[in-house]
Amino acid sequence: MMNSLLCFLCLCIFRTVSPESCSLEISPSRAVVKFGDPVSVSCVASRPVRVLGWESILAASHTQNQLSVQWKVDSLTDWIEEPICYGVFFTAPRQCEEKLNLVLYKKPDSVSIILVNHSSPVVEGREYQLQCDVHNVAPVQFLQLRWYRGQTEVYTHSFSELLPATPVQVSSMLTIVPNRVENGAEYRCEAELHLGPEGPESPPTVQSELLSIAVQYPPDFHSPEEETLEIREGSEVLLNCTAEGNPPPVYFWTSPDLQEKPNDQPVLADASLGPGVYTCTASNILGKKSKQFVIRHKSKGERD
């Protein structure tokens, strides 16, 4: 019973040895490895050692009286691998260990983007949600998801609060309130793994397809909503009611002089239009807007 207690106390003393007293150095101290790639790491003792080795699921190894030992795997595919280098020394502290900071990563299989519970086109001024899904990525805490409209970055989503080391699927949401200027805008998202200085020089990146958003909006006129024209009798009159809208607007003209004239065009050009008020209405499924033209004839003595 006494021997067991002594062994337990010895074990406790060993486990409380501070890291500064351990005479082991791992090189590189942080290994960033792509899923399926080879990896090789050395552990070196700075003082004479009785046994030096690696505890590992895949490649356990040890040496006797040698100051270095290598941990080597031809193809790393184990997500729970946590290699530990240990040493048994001739002098105190008799035992110590160092854990390899190992990052096994996998870039996403794919990245997809959708308009949630809707399909394009959308309506100007209303709120919509875009969703970006990243499929089968690890480790997710190193992931940054960047949202773009055209070439402009509009949002960055990080996942540093998540801890899984194995591949997972994650999503990001972007709220948009489109306007007519953004009609036809193309959205995309890009998934980047930022793995630190030990990782690839360029972050492994996968981007989604482009999602084009068509924006519908009510008609609006290019020029003021009322125009007055003073012309000589017999001169050609041009009334331009062109409006911008999506879907493209249809037009309706009203005036006593238009009873037998085509009235579905945005522009009227006619020398027979008499004085009076001509009203044009442009409309689409989202609304309508009217514009008035007032025509006045100049008297013969009136100068232009």
From TrEMBL:
<dbReference type="InterPro" id="IPR003598">
    <property type="entry name" value="Ig_sub2"/>
</dbReference>
<feature type="domain" description="Ig-like">
    <location>
        <begin position="219"/>
        <end position="296"/>
    </location>
</feature>
<dbReference type="InterPro" id="IPR003599">
    <property type="entry name" value="Ig_sub"/>
</dbReference>
<dbReference type="InterPro" id="IPR013783">
    <property type="entry name" value="Ig-like_fold"/>
</dbReference>
<dbReference type="InterPro" id="IPR007110">
    <property type="entry name" value="Ig-like_dom"/>
</dbReference>
<dbReference type="GO" id="GO:0007155">
    <property type="term" value="P:cell adhesion"/>
</dbReference>
<dbReference type="InterPro" id="IPR036179">
    <property type="entry name" value="Ig-like_dom_sf"/>
</dbReference>
<dbReference type="GO" id="GO:0005178">
    <property type="term" value="F:integrin binding"/>
</dbReference>
<dbReference type="InterPro" id="IPR047012">
    <property type="entry name" value="ICAM_VCAM"/>
</dbReference>
<keyword id="KW-0732">Signal</keyword>
<dbReference type="Pfam" id="PF13895">
    <property type="entry name" value="Ig_2"/>
</dbReference>
<feature type="domain" description="Ig-like">
    <location>
        <begin position="108"/>
        <end position="207"/>
    </location>
</feature>
<protein>
    <recommendedName>
        <fullName>Ig-like domain-containing protein</fullName>
    </recommendedName>
</protein>
<feature type="signal peptide">
    <location>
        <begin position="1"/>
        <end position="19"/>
    </location>
</feature>
